[in-house]
Amino acid sequence: MELQPNALESVRRRRDAMREAMDRLEWAIARPAASSDWAGMVGHALVDLRTAHAAHVEEVEGPDGLLTDLVREAPRLSGPIDVLRHDHDLIDGSIGELLASSFATHPDETRERITQILGRLVRHRQKGSDLLWEAYGTDIGDASH
Fold first, then answer.
1. For residue 62, which of 35, 70, 82, 98 sits 20 to 30 Å off, Cα-Cα?
2. How is residue 35 annotated by DSSP?
3. Residue among 22, 141, 136, 121 nearest 74 (CA)
4. DSSP line for 54-77
5. Which of 78, 74, 84, 67 is nearest to 121 (CA)?
6. Taking the C-alpha atoms of 72, 127, 58 and 71 in order, what is their torsion angle to the nearest 10 degrees?
7. How confident is the model at residue 76, as a pLDDT?
8. Closest by Cα among 55, 39, 126 to 92
9. Are 144 and 132 in contact, with CB atoms under 8 Å apart?
10. Helix (H) and strand (E) counts for the chain?
């Protein structure tokens, strides 16, 4: 199997956008919680991350998405693909729950929950890289392009 160059570039762009959103969120929670704009910065960064994640999910799980194609072309990879899809649901749910909470009044708890979300995203990205390597022999890593 071969991943088309335009599909590979699209995946890399989405991957870069996700990494940037993760970095902005990490930066936001590292700021002093007592500052007047901490909650606003964190909330904005969470929304940005959710938007980047939703775009990623739409791209890879849509009718012509990468995961959909992989299931058709390499059914042997359906197990790892199911894991990635399940991750998508867990990540989106975690972000949504946090946005719906009163996170601004509990900075330590908020930081812990966000750190858990970021950790899940890091592991998800690793699994995605491993899957693309298994399917296409392609390293999707951020620094390689």
1. 98
2. S
3. 136
4. HHHHHHHHSTT-HHHHHHHH-GGG
5. 84
6. 10
7. 92
8. 55
9. no
10. 5, 0
Domains of the chain by residue range: 5-144
Instruction: Say if residue 73's pLDDT is above 60.
Output: yes
User: CA torsion angle for 102, 36, 20, 85 (degrees, to 10)?
Assistant: 0
- Tell me the whole-structure pTM to 2 decimals: 0.90
- Closest by CA to 111, choosing from 18, 31, 53, is 31
For the record, the structure tokens of 142 come out as 């951020």
pLDDT tier at 5 (50, 70, 90 boundaries)? low
CA atoms of 63 and 86, how far apart (whole Å): 17
Radius of gyration of the chain (CA): 16
Residue with tokens 């940037």: 20
The answer, yes or no, to whether residue 145 has pLDDT greater than 60, is: no
- Give the Å distances, CA to CA, from 19 to 8, 12, 26, 99, 142: 16, 10, 10, 20, 9
